[in-house]
Design a protein that fits this description.
With 144 residues, this protein is an alpha+beta fold. The protein folds into two domains: 47 residues; 79 residues, Beta Barrel (OB fold (Dihydrolipoamide Acetyltransferase, E2P)), CATH 2.40.50. The chain is built from one helix and six strands; from the N terminus they run αββββββ. A five-stranded mixed beta barrel has the order 1-2-3-6-5.
Length: 144
């Protein structure tokens, strides 16, 4: 069996043309990414205010309920508050409320933040049901 020597085929690339094509592709990619960023920014600038106004309209349309009880858990990280409702001297139920930046928290006429609420404080909460998103507290009053 005879072995043939295979001569390597050498392709010479015109480096100047290659560099020009590479630069054009980079420029096209840059402008494509810039267009995507501008589109997303425009979308966010329009969508976020629309969502906020939609939520406030929904809150106005929904019936606001009121409940009173003692605070069982204050979740600063998750922005939620759990209260225990007491019926006829025994614990009847616990309810978890989502707290938004628009939730008004007061004690004796003074405004508070969520971190100032303490377990065992007796509170009255005005809220509405957001269906799958849970209960949203609109106003929390600490009863003294």
């Amino acid at each position: 069996m005879k072995y043939q020597a295979i001569e390597p085929i050498i392709t010479i690339i015109n480096t100047e043309k290659f560099d020009q094509e590479l630069a054009a592709n980079r420029t096209n990619l840059y402008f494509t990414m810039l267009a995507i960023k501008i589109f997303l920014l425009g979308f966010l600038l329009v969508a976020v205010p629309l969502r906020a106004s939609y939520c406030s309209e929904q809150a106005q349309k929904q019936e606001v309920s009121t409940v009173s009880g003692r605070i069982a858990v204050v979740n600063w990280v998750g922005s939620s508050l759990t209260i225990r409702i007491i019926f006829l001297g025994s614990i009847a139920d616990e309810m978890v409320f989502n707290i938004s930046r628009d939730t008004q928290i007061t004690k004796g006429g003074y405004s508070l933040v969520l971190g100032e609420l303490q377990v065992q404080d007796y509170v009255t909460i005005e809220y509405f049901d957001q269906s799958f998103q849970g209960l949203l507290a609109t106003r929390i009053t600490v009863n003294t």
